[in-house]
Amino acid sequence: MTRIRRGYIARRRRTKIRLFASSFRGAHSRLTRTITQQKIRALISSHRDRGRQKRTFRRLWITRINAVIREMGVSYSYSRFIHGLYKKQVLLNRKILAQIAISNKECLYMISNEIINEIIKEVDWKESTGII
Fold this sequence. Notes:
Its main location: plastid. The protein is mainly alpha-helical.
């Protein structure tokens, strides 16, 4: 009986997995079983950390905005600033606001002063009409 040569499909699959794990250290880049285990772990970690990265960047942006806003006055806070932005329908997200806060504080001061003046006008109007 003649010898049967194996196909290339399994070998192609293994080389594809090896290319994924080529930067791993030790047996994690050499042995097929450990390569597949480490590939699963790596993909799980990357999926989990994408959401975590979004959360941490949002926290960083909020901290930067809050720091610049609190430099202006003691009674003014981040939450009031964001509430004022929503009331005036200003379409600036937290990422852009944080970049403005770092690069150009005066621009953020102008935006927040507009919001403060609007809030003061609204409170004065409510007091004059007797709502408050």
